[in-house]
Design a protein that fits this description.
The chain is an alpha+beta fold. About 30% of the residues lie in helices and about 30% in strands. It binds zinc ion.
């Protein structure tokens, strides 16, 4: 894409510099725009990142061992469904809207009230179980206070997976598999370090389990801008959330039993929950077992906030100058920059642009004529595309381009006809 044609522009600064760093950088670089408090537009660069994150998640949800099937459930939920579970009254963040004829709806903040009656239409016998459905859908929460950009919003994109089982044991086994895959997704997004014992960046955190099981789990990315507080065990590095910390004195990771924790700020990027029969009972979701008896279906739900994940990636991957996108989630792989506008430079850069496209390397080409070389380089650092490729009088004098990785200081001169090969070799 030509940067001269890009809809969004970079900003010198944004209004509130007390905001979370991810919000500042995403706004300044033109990835997102705030429509009103807690409501955002994803601009072309941000939308590309969103799609990359979505695709990582979708692939992991579809392949083994998750084996989920994608569906798309409605945003508008009938009031009756929410009355059945008691949550029409109980859930204070529920957005309620009135349609014609006074009919009332909820704007879905989660989809148990839709998926449980849906599953009832297709589950009859133990032979129909287990199965797994997921969606990537916009959700709503009528938050009293919103802040920190994409971290707490009133409208947000989420992946939610639901699983249906004949027994608690089967649910438990699947829950462990989802937990494992979640960490793989965070690793691919550049916010989980599986090799580190101590500094894992994102932690699977013990949280309250509700009525069915003692614990659920959250995924918390440690960052100063985070709104949550987690406690990391100093002995075994298990993490627990604030709720749990208030309930128990000892590390729950048996047999650790340590009393010493380190307090950290964090942002919740996902959670997994054993629902048991909490939603199958009100919706009469049952199956006929091998013994001929009718039994309630066991359910699990597994959420992941996609906008929050984008914010967490930036919180973890940035420096003074701007964002540093991991290649898996970067809007483009190469930022091609033309320095100087005489015909020779222009021709060489245009040729390189075509060549990159021909080789299916995603490229943002800074062809803006009104910008100085300095401004172009500052913008490139802010936007944070993994590879910067400069074509200038100086590089062309040796038939070279200058290539620099966003996360490294060193620049390298590479022959024009070897540039594509160089990139391909360095992508991994
Ligand atoms: Zn411990």
């Amino acid at each position: 894409m030509r940067q001269s044609q890009l809809f969004s522009k970079t900003l010198k600064k944004i209004g509130n510099e007390k905001e979370a760093i991810s919000n500042q950088l995403l706004l300044r670089a033109g990835f997102i725009d705030q429509t009103t408090a807690g409501v955002f537009t994803f601009l072309p660069l941000g939308f590309k990142v969103l799609k990359k994150i979505e695709n990582i998640i979708r692939r992991k949800m579809e392949e083994s061992p998750i084996s989920g099937q994608e569906v798309l459930m409605p945003v508008l939920h009938p009031k009756e469904n929410w009355q059945k579970t008691g949550r029409w009254q109980q859930l204070d963040i529920l957005f309620k809207v009135k349609g014609s004829g006074g009919k009332e709806y909820a704007l879905g903040p989660t989809h148990e009230e839709i998926i449980s009656p849906l599953a009832k239409k297709f589950i009859f016998s133990y032979k129909d179980l287990p199965f797994y459905l997921f969606q990537i859908q916009t959700k709503f929460r009528d938050e009293l206070r919103v802040k920190s950009g994409l971290m707490r919003t009133r409208e947000f994109l989420m992946k939610d997976l639901y699983s249906f089982h004949t027994s608690e044991e089967d649910l438990g086994g699947y829950y462990e598999k989802v937990a494992m895959v979640y960490l793989k997704i965070f690793e691919e997004c550049g916010i989980y370090n599986p090799k580190a014992l101590k500094d894992r960046v994102t932690y699977q955190t013990w949280a309250s389990g509700g009525t069915f099981s003692k614990y659920s789990h959250e995924y918390q990315t440690v960052t100063e801008s985070g709104e949550d507080t987690i406690y990391i065990c100093k002995k075994c590095y298990a993490a627990i959330n604030k709720e749990i910390k208030d309930e128990i004195k000892l590390c729950p990771n048996k047999p650790c039993d340590s009393k010493e924790f380190e307090e950290r700020k964090a942002i919740e990027v996902g959670n997994i929950f054993k629902l048991g029969t909490k939603y199958s009972l009100p919706f009469d979701l049952k199956f006929r077992d091998k013994d001929g008896k009718e039994k309630p279906v066991f359910m699990g739900c597994y959420g992941m906030g996609i906008g929050r994940l984008m914010a967490a990636i930036v919180e973890i991957n940035h420096d003074q100058e701007g964002m540093i996108w991991p290649k898996e989630t970067a809007p483009f792989q190469v930022h091609l920059i033309q320095i100087g506008d005489d015909q020779k430079i222009k021709k060489a850069t245009e040729e390189m642009y075509l060549n990159l496209q021909k080789n299916e390397i995603e490229v943002l080409y800074d062809d803006r004529e009104e910008k100085t070389p300095g401004e172009k380089l500052v913008d490139a650092d802010l936007i944070g595309i993994p590879f910067r490729m400069v074509v200038s009088d100086k590089t062309l004098s040796g038939d070279n381009v200058e290539i620099k990785k966003r996360n490294e200081k060193a620049v390298e001169l590479v022959k024009l006809d070897k540039a594509i090969e160089f990139l391909k070799n360095n992508f991994n």
